[in-house]
Design a protein that fits this description.
The complex is a heterodimer of chains A (about 150) and B (about 775). Chain A has about 150 residues and is α+β, with helices and mostly antiparallel strands. Chain A is built from five helices and five strands; from the N terminus they run E-E-H-E-E-E-H-H-H-H. The model of chain A has no long low-confidence stretch (mean pLDDT about 95). Chain B is α+β, with helices and mostly antiparallel strands and about 775 residues long. Chain B folds into three domains: about 210 residues, Aldehyde Oxidoreductase, domain 4, CATH 3.30.365; about 160 residues, Aldehyde Oxidoreductase, domain 4 (2-Layer Sandwich), CATH 3.30.365.10; about 300 residues, 2-Layer Sandwich (Aldehyde Oxidoreductase, domain 4), CATH 3.30.365.10. Classes of the chains: A alpha+beta (about 150), B alpha+beta (about 775). Chains A and B meet through helix 1, helix 2, helix 3, helix 4 and helix 5 of A and helix 16 of B.
Chain lengths: ~150, ~775
């Protein structure tokens, strides 16, 4: 048994240490907002926060997570995600929506680190997140809008 | 945000859309597998009530086959069309809510049953082998005969061909108006006032005296009334929702992880399966040793899957493979790597992109092809031409690569199957499952969650059949089959590779007098009488005085299917590149040259002119934001009833990398039901088409797909996405396609821009300068 800190709660998990965090979240904890896309850290659909930073849960083994704080799309909190969700709605970002949990988690980690990101900073933080529906321009617009609405740090 | 155009004009026409030439195979859900094409302008009232009454909850009533009302005022729209990002569910619900005067906040959706009223007639209409503007007797007669069948056979509901809004434009609005009339009737009876003194607004019926009642209070009484014999649909001036950028109905659930996709279905006792199919296309398992895998924790069963039919209606079958069923996805995947599999590589083991390419060349060298369109006397015109231009164009195989890989959850218990399938064709999937399990289709319950992308891939039932077969092995426990990305990439139903030879002739004044194209490639799964291989080439709007469009069908062992915009994806590139080449050959401006050939078609002209205006076509193009010299190119293409023109502005880096900075897109898609969803689709279709144009290629060596994941089949990323400006032409025509028509013009627009920039004409996709 491994004890994890998931979305602010201490959670017991029965899985081998080499199990990717993604499958622990999805199958053991039924937190299915985090998606499988590639299994190789290539698409960003599985992005979660590990101690506040965006990581790809499909290539993060359970062993690397112990004693650290994991946040998923279901449990991420704070003014950044609130502002991002409002902006995502205002800009009408989503289409199929499958990649959007990962997009939001990447964007949220960015805004926590850089409250007013430049276009280049957005590119750098977001280009690891694929979207086959092609919502990129709206994602960028929504991040800029959320950054505008956030109180000055 | 930009302003949204919502312009309408009177009179509001509700005639059927212009009939287009397109083909899609449809069949019954059952074992009969009848092939159906055709269309009848079915009396729409026949699409008002289902064969079997709708199921209702306590306190809920059905007012017709499309809408239920609950005591708590919830208005439930019966939804036959699936949501894969294209926004159809929002647009469709808007049609009903508009006519019913429902309160949008109280509108919810429920997956419809399989019933003939939900059959996608507009998708079928596209299948008739007639020219777009042909309204002749033959077409109507053949449509009438087949239409009778379509009205009676359930299971022809499908989401594809950019057809959902076109198909349900009338039925949903009539259903909404009918429900509204019944609710008003109920209120009038209750209050003992003339119905004419009552009106509906925002989920309530109001009387001129000030009395009012919510829909929920009136629903039970309303349901006792007969269906109104006639309903009056709103005029455009009365529309409150249609034409507005209403927020997506699925928007909120997609922001907090609560939206349920195929892989999120978690019935109690769920087991997980992973799969490895023969890497050689068409191959199967020769033998395997599962001992090591079976010894691993959590492994329940290792199953050999024989090749199975991929669809109840389309040709092709799955590759054979090995699946591991385990108690967790990781256990299933890990154990799969420990199964020693010996493959029977089958007949395709020597196949390569080169051999296929050679076959296409040989076919064009030796065959004239089947003529799909002919005008005038092209041979004579070419003989007497003062000048001719020849070119050979090529497109590669392409994968769909939906973000959500193929997956399906199935449970087979007590002779009945429950299947949670992210599918574009629930009726066909139901038939395929029934066939695979040897049960009647009535014993198959298909539930459709959200689709993480479709693009045509999820028309096939291959992964659904596999899940159903695995569900036989679990003693009644549900099992979720998830294809690893590598399997999804290597076992797609690909957009086929095509080769196209083009010849044009000009008179001494540089006027185009002859147009001849012959393409070679797969028929994309369609039988010859429904050949869609020249869609977008044989039915172009250009008024060529002499023309011949022919095609040679060349099949290979590579499975092919329908990919966003189907044959338009290749034929748009061929036609719009070669027309540009023709303009250049006579030193003409690309817009002026196209205008001459399109002058009789007002709709095309409006779209073309507006795109040129927005691009400042008459003015020289300045440098890109980074200072690089830019070129621009234009393309215009009609597909799925909609006309789209795009202007691309591109530059080239010192390393010969192509960069697309801005795309202007003008679309005429009939009534813009929800302008924001239309913009979304244009943007998305451009990014999808640009990913293919710049990098998309599936290659084959030794019968195996060489690409495996997003490292070697890499769609556009955010840092490469151009600015996109979309304008919608105001229209009063029936809504036409939106999900696909934005894709065909982008590749030729970029290729044409590269020519304008560098003088180099790229005739092969993906576009490469280095």
């Amino acid at each position: 048994m491994t004890t994890l800190n998931i979305n602010g709660k201490s959670t017991m998990v029965d899985a081998e240490p080499d199990t990717p965090l993604l499958w622990v979240l999805r199958a053991e904890l039924q937190l299915v907002g985090t998606k499988y896309g590639c299994g190789k850290g290539l698409c960003g659909a599985c992005t979660v926060h590990l101690d506040g930073e965006a990581v790809r849960s499909c290539v993060t083994p359970l062993a690397a997570v112990q004693g650290r704080e994991v946040r998923t799309i279901e449990g991420v909190q704070g003014q950044q995600i609130d502002a991002l969700r409002r902006a995502w709605t205002q800009v009408d970002v989503v289409q199929c929506g499958y990649c959007q949990s990962g997009q939001l988690m990447s964007a949220c980690a960015l805004l926590k680190r850089v409250p007013k990101p430049s276009n280049e900073e957005i590119d750098a933080a977001m280009s690891g997140n694929l979207c086959r529906c092609g919502t990129y321009n709206r994602i960028r617009a929504a991040i800029l809008l959320a950054a505008e609405s956030a109180p000055r740090a | 945000m930009p302003a949204f155009d919502t312009g309408f004009a009177y009179p509001y026409r509700v005639a059927m859309p212009n009939l287009k030439r397109r083909h899609i195979i449809l069949g019954t859900a059952g074992a009969v597998g009848v092939l159906v094409i055709g269309w009848s302008a079915a009396p729409q009232r026949r699409r008002l009530t289902t064969n079997k009454p709708l199921k209702v909850h306590q306190g809920q009533v059905a007012l017709n086959g499309w809408v239920k009302v609950s005591a708590d005022n919830t208005v439930t729209v019966m939804m036959s069309q699936v949501e894969m990002g294209q926004g159809a569910q929002t647009g469709l619900a808007m049609l009903l809510a508009e006519e019913m005067d429902a309160d949008w906040a109280q509108v919810t959706l429920e997956q419809s049953t399989l019933d003939a009223i939900y059959n996608n007639q507009a998708m079928i209409i596209d299948g008739l082998p007639f020219q777009p503007n042909d309204q002749g007797l033959m077409k109507r007669a053949s449509g009438h005969l087949l239409g009778k069948l379509i009205r009676q056979v359930p299971g022809l509901q499908g989401t594809g061909g950019s057809s959902s809004l076109t198909d349900q434009w009338m039925p949903l609005r009539q259903a909404g108006a009918s429900a509204r009339a019944m609710l008003i009737g109920a209120a009038a009876a209750l209050w003992q006032v003339p119905a004419g003194e009552c009106r509906a607004e925002n989920g309530r019926v109001l009387h001129s005296s000030g009395k009012s009642a919510a829909f929920g209070e009136l629903a039970q009484r309303a349901a006792q009334l007969p269906l109104p014999r006639e309903v009056t649909l709103k005029t455009p001036a009365q529309f409150k929702m249609i034409g507005q950028p209403v927020r997506r109905i699925d928007g909120a659930a997609k922001l907090d992880g609560s939206a349920t996709y195929g892989i999120d279905v978690l019935p109690p006792g769920l087991l997980y399966a992973s799969i490895s199919m023969c890497p050689t296309l068409g191959g199967k398992v020769a033998g395997f040793d599962a001992a090591a895998a079976q010894a691993l924790p959590g492994v329940r069963k290792v199953v050999k899957l024989e090749p199975a039919k991929a669809s109840s209606i389309m040709p092709g079958s799955t590759c054979g493979g090995i699946a591991v069923i385990a108690d967790s996805p990781f256990h299933a995947m890990r154990a799969l790597t420990r199964v020693a599999i010996e493959w029977d590589h089958g007949a395709a083991a020597a196949l390569s992109s080169e051999t296929i390419s050679g076959e296409l060349k040989a076919a064009l060298d030796s065959k004239a092809g089947k003529v799909h369109f002919e005008a005038g006397h092209v041979t004579d015109a070419l003989k007497s031409a003062a000048k001719t231009v020849d070119a050979e164009y090529r497109v590669p195989f392409l994968a769909h690569a939906t973000m959500e890989p193929m997956n399906c959850t199935a449970q087979f218990k007590d002779g009945a199957a429950t299947v949670w399938a992210p599918t574009q064709a629930a009726g066909f999937a139901s038939g395929a499952v029934a066939q695979a399990l040897g049960i009647s289709a009535s014993k198959v319950d298909i539930k459709v969650p959200y689709l993480g992308g479709g693009f045509g891939r999820r028309f096939l039932s291959d992964f659904i059949v596999q899940a159903a077969l695995l569900a036989r092995e679990t003693q009644g426990a549900p099992v979720q089959l998830l294809w690893p990305r590598e399997q999804d990439m290597a076992h797609d139903y690909y957009r086929p590779t095509y080769l196209c030879r083009c010849t044009a002739g000009f008179d001494a004044n540089g006027k185009l007098t002859a147009w001849k194209t012959t393409s070679a490639g797969s028929s994309m799964g369609a039988p010859s009488f429904m050949d869609m291989s020249t869609d977008g080439a044989s039915n172009t709007a250009y008024a060529f005085p002499n023309a011949r469009v022919a095609h040679v069908t060349v099949e290979s062992a590579v499975p092919v299917g329908i990919w966003r915009s189907v044959a338009h994806s290749q034929n748009g590139f061929f036609t719009e590149s070669f027309i540009d080449e023709c303009a250049a050959a006579c030193g003409r401006d690309p817009v002026a040259f196209r205008s001459e050939l399109l002058s009789a078609d007002e709709r095309h002209m409006r779209v073309l002119r507006r795109a040129a205006e927005l691009a400042n076509w008459q003015q020289p193009l300045g440098p890109a934001p980074d200072g690089a010299k830019q070129g621009r190119g234009i393309a215009i293409h009609r597909s799925f009833g909609s006309v789209v023109a795009q202007v691309a502005e591109v530059s080239v880096t010192e390393q010969k990398q192509i960069r697309v900075h801005r795309v202007i897109c003008v679309v005429d898609c009939g009534v813009a039901v929800n302008p924001n969803l239309i913009r979304q689709q244009m943007e998305g279709a451009i990014v999808f088409g640009l990913s293919a144009a710049l990098r998309g290629e599936i290659s084959i060596e030794k019968g195996q797909v060489q690409q495996s994941n997003f490292n070697d089949y890499s769609p556009l990323r955010m840092n490469e996405c151009p600015a996109i400006q979309v304008e919608i032409i105001p229209s009063e025509e029936v809504p036409s396609g939106v999900g696909e028509p934005g894709t065909p013009p982008i590749a030729p627009a970029v290729a044409n821009a590269l020519y304008a920039l560098s003088g180099v004409r790229l005739r092969s996709l993906p576009l490469k300068l280095a």
